[in-house]
Amino acid sequence: MTEKKHEQDVAFIKALAELLRENDLTEVQVKRDYGEDDSLNVRVSRMTAPAPVAAAPVAAAPAAAAPAPASAPVAAAAEASEDPASHPGAVTSPMVGTVYMQPEPGAPSFISVGAQIGEGDTLLIVEAMKTMNHIPAPRAGKIKRILVEDGAAVEFGTPLVIIE
């Protein structure tokens, strides 16, 4: 009887892992109660790196717009390989949610690469639980890179923008 329950638990854990992969989740935790003193606690998680993948198309656009000196490709490659979260001007997401780059569909974006912003200006919106959270600029400066795309899902600590 315990062997049958063990086989069911293994199948259940495999189903959770499949659910994680199919829905692009990073973690799922479930508790199954079998009786008063019998339960199963399962936490399935995986590590992802969404920011570098999203950063590649945005970082490539400015380089294609203008011809660069011979040393620029080396500098651009080194910059692309560094972790955006470790950059001193990185603004990270304070919550899990969906990013919106403009206040409403069809409206102009809050920011663009190269734009000058002031401290407290809205950089973007992160929607969490049907609440639109305006993410303010922590300081004045120039937008160097936008690391997320409109409609992208972000997690706590995901780098959003780099301000210089």
TrEMBL record:
CDD domains: biotinyl_domain. Residues 70-79 have a biased composition (Low complexity). InterPro entries: AcCoA_biotinCC (IPR001249), Biotin_BS (IPR001882), Biotin_Carboxyl_Carrier/Decarb (IPR050709), Biotin_lipoyl (IPR000089), Single_hybrid_motif (IPR011053). Keywords: Biotin, Fatty acid biosynthesis, Fatty acid metabolism, Lipid biosynthesis, Lipid metabolism. Residues 70-91 are annotated as: Disordered. The keyword Disulfide bond does not apply. Pathway: Lipid metabolism; fatty acid biosynthesis. The keyword Lipid biosynthesis applies. This protein is a component of the acetyl coenzyme A carboxylase complex; first, biotin carboxylase catalyzes the carboxylation of the carrier protein and then the transcarboxylase transfers the carboxyl group to form malonyl-CoA. PANTHER family: OXALOACETATE DECARBOXYLASE ALPHA CHAIN (PTHR45266). This is Biotin carboxyl carrier protein of acetyl-CoA carboxylase. It comes from Arenibacterium halophilum.
